[in-house]
Amino acid sequence: MEISVQDYARECADKGLRGNYDVCRSDFTVEQEYDYTDAEQEVWRILSDRQTKLTKRLAHKSYLDGVEALGLIDRIPDFDEVSQKLRKLTGWELVAVPGLIPAPAFFDHLAERRFPVTNWLRKHEELDYIVEPDMFHDFFGHVPALTQPAFADFMQMYGQKAEGLIELGGGDMIERLYWYTAEFGLMQEAGQVKAFGAGLMSSFSELQFAVESPDAHHVPFDIETVMRTVYEIDKFQRAYFVLPSFSALRDGFEKSDLAAIIARWKDAPVLDPATI
Ligand code: HBI
Ligand code: FE
């Protein structure tokens, strides 16, 4: 039984999440309602300027190409305008949501090439860290890579397959795959390692750490290893997986026997990121 909007709204209010879930449609989307204050535009500009200085140096070319293609980012994006561009590039579009939404609804959107983006922005006091995903994370972090066809295909496929894999007991394993790629993934570029994951692209300190620190632990991407490796939620990751390309991610996900991988490892001890 999938959770109703009303029950989810109550849960979010109880947990202190700040989105307004009372106005959600049944698929948990809302109108973006582009009525941001000058103060909010200013927060966006500060975040975007500060982060763009880093991404020029540390982001993978495919992310930077995405930023260029979408014509971002000196003001809070209008989701409909960006969707028009994205539709032409990879067939994706953005939908506004009040924040975190239930996993089944999130997967359904991905399966239909719709990326849920939170319609509110963190406050000035929260430039460096925020508990919930906000618009800056969702948009600045996730959206540019959706201009890349192989990554765009991976995200759709992830949405299509996730629920079936969860039913096989693979919930934790596929979350790790998402975490170590869409959120904290690194990728080769002409003999160097660069970043593309949204958790990195939207973090001032971890982006620098993950790419440049001699203490960052870089591990070659292997889908089975990724699915077995636990991760950190509110500390820097103790391992980052390095993809050769987005095609390797898409093809690995498409061609691996994920049910067999889950059956093999779901009850086995997990891998420690420090020692892989
Ligand atoms: N909702 N808006 C939003 N953004 C997410 O990234 C998100 C979500 N709901 C659930 C969720 N992620 C995770 O549980 C995924 O692994 C599904
Ligand atoms: Fe995210």
From TrEMBL:
Its EC number is 1.14.16.1. CDD domains: pro_PheOH. Residues 1-276 form the Biopterin-dependent aromatic amino acid hydroxylase family profile domain. This is Phenylalanine-4-hydroxylase. GO terms for biological process: L-phenylalanine catabolic process. Belongs to the biopterin-dependent aromatic amino acid hydroxylase family. It catalyses: (6R)-L-erythro-5,6,7,8-tetrahydrobiopterin + L-phenylalanine + O2 = (4aS,6R)-4a-hydroxy-L-erythro-5,6,7,8-tetrahydrobiopterin + L-tyrosine. InterPro entries: ArAA_hydroxylase, ArAA_hydroxylase_Fe/CU_BS, ArAA_hydroxylase_sf, Aro-AA_hydroxylase_C_sf, Aromatic-AA_hydroxylase_C, Phe-4-hydroxylase_mono. Its cofactor is Fe(2+). Gene3D superfamilies: Aromatic amino acid hydroxylase (1.10.800.10). It comes from the Bacteria. Fe cation binds at residues 137, 142, 183. Pathway: Amino-acid degradation; L-phenylalanine degradation; acetoacetate and fumarate from L-phenylalanine: step 1/6. GO terms for molecular function: iron ion binding; phenylalanine 4-monooxygenase activity. Keywords: Iron, Metal-binding, Monooxygenase, Oxidoreductase, Phenylalanine catabolism. It comes from Mesorhizobium alhagi CCNWXJ12-2. It is an enzyme of class 1 (oxidoreductase).
